[in-house]
Structure formats: C-alpha cells, structure tokens
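[09:14] KT: can someone run the structure on this one? pasting the chain below
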Amino acid sequence: MLCPMKAPLFVRPLTTEERQALQAGLRAREAFTLRRCQILLASADGKTATEIAALFGCATQTVRNTLRAFAAEGLSCLTEKSHRPKRVRPLLAGTQAERLRALLHRSPREFGKPTSLWSLTLAAEVAFEQGLTERQLSHESIRQALIRLGVGWKRAKTWITSPDPHYARKKSGATA
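[09:31] RB: done, structure tokens below
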C-alpha cells in the first residue's frame, strides 16, 4: 500500500513588516540570518523546499526546519540560538557515583585484572563490566565523577615493596 504524499510545506503569507524585515536580513553579517531570510523569501514566492534547497545549496531538511521555526517563532527565528543542551545530567551521579567510590576501594585483581593499581581507563572498564554504567565511559567521565565525589586522583605510582617482614628496617638501613 502506498502512503499518500504530504503536501509541500510553504511559509504562511508574510505581512508587510515581516517581508521588510526579511529583505533587510539579506544584508545581515551573520550567515545564519542571511540563509534563513533567503529561504523564507523564496518560500513566500511559491518555491518548494526541494527547489529552495537546490537554489541555495542546502539540505531540504534545513529548509523545512526554517519554515517550521518561522511558523513557531516568527521573526525571532532569524537569530541563531545556543547549541548547548538545555540540561546536562552527569553520567555517574548519586548512588552510581558512590558505587564507583566503593569499587575503587577494592583491588582490580578482585575483578580479574592483571594489575593491582587503578587507572581511570581501568575504572571505566570495570564500572561497565559490573553494570554500574550502561556503556563504557571515557576516562574523563570517570575523572569528573571523582571530582564531584571530592576524591583526589593522581596517576598511580608503583612502589617497590617486599613481603619480607623486616623490609622497612632493611630499607631504612640501606637508604639512610
């Protein structure tokens, strides 16, 4: 069964003030404003989204986005908005962060790793394997979570130690 074609998307009829503002926008310094003015004026002249996209060398989705933005916002759609996300949620927060802290108080060897020293990458790997995160995070995400927890993190250093019970006494005698 074939789906019926959607009707072409056009800009609503422009008021005199809107048309003047769009024509003034053709002299704008910002490429974003210029492109949107061109698209809106071309649509007001009866061109379809495909024709406009070919005319200005952009994607048809760009044309549709512009037309929808104008319908929703009016002339305020001519100024570029921030690209930042409206909300940023930490990847490891609350109980997950506390579970990470508890995980780091254990030896990596308990998780089948060949080392006894944690690295940020290793912590990210084990956190994922233990189901703490949905996907493996970057070492930077782990570092940021530790900062939020107030945990100081420095690169692991290897220290020479010995199982000899008299090691400390022998070492101090040799280095003193």
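[09:33] KT: thanks! The mean pLDDT is 85.
[09:34] RB: yep, looked fine to me
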